[in-house]
Amino acid sequence: MSVHVVEHPLVHDALVTLRDARTQPEVFRRMAVRISLLLAAEATRDLPASPVTVQTPLAPAEGRRVSADVVVVPVLRAGLGMLDAILELIPGARVGHIGLQRDEATAIASKYYTKLPRDLSESFVLMIDPMLATGGSAVAAIDLLTAAGARTLRIICIVAAPEGVALVEQHHPEVAIYTPVVDRELNPHKYIVPGLGDFGDRLYGTT
Ligand code: PRP
Ligand code: URA
Questions:
Q1: Active site residue 106
Q2: Run means of pLDDT, 10 residues per run, the chain, 207 residues
Q3: Is the pTM of this model over 0.70?
Q4: Active site residue 102
């Protein structure tokens, strides 16, 4: 089972604002950051950490510091709306970029940009893309990441469709998907229903 449905009430509170057609880009961006923070906390629950000791004003205290090399990869353009949230949690993360654009008529994604950090084989890779619709973009991005050596790879999305989940499971059963919800279906234009519309357009006001 590769889907982790995140039930946290604060996640769902932010999601309903994102879904609301009245939400304007300023609030949409804020909610995208808020929900991404919460989802990332869930997706990194088992991030490797090492024991450390620090000196408080009173005494030594034992703690843990994240020891993994984390690589965050937003899928352009909508994934950029989630990036600041992840970097707020993991400021030392390395960042790769994958540019994919769905054709409006066919919904088939084509690649226009890739820039990835070197040596992903030992890294904890978080791919961020808010919408998992047909799954074509996600599978293309995972293909690029695995070809670049990624072995520990998780996807964080904000709304998923059953078709997208199934396609990722079929091509990359080892990749875990973190999402608040798997919506009902895709419409004939391959938009998620009920979904939230075009995430990138709502984020950047390009509708
Ligand atoms: C959206 C979204 C995903 C993709 C999902 O991006 O951010 O990348 O569609 O659809 P799929 O699962 O059917 O491939 P889009 O191609 O619209 O580009 P944008 O981020 O530049 O708006
Ligand atoms: N991309 C979006 O932004 N929304 C959808 O519903 C599907 C793909």
A1: yes
A2: 92 98 98 98 96 98 97 98 98 97 92 97 97 97 97 98 97 97 97 98 94
A3: yes
A4: yes
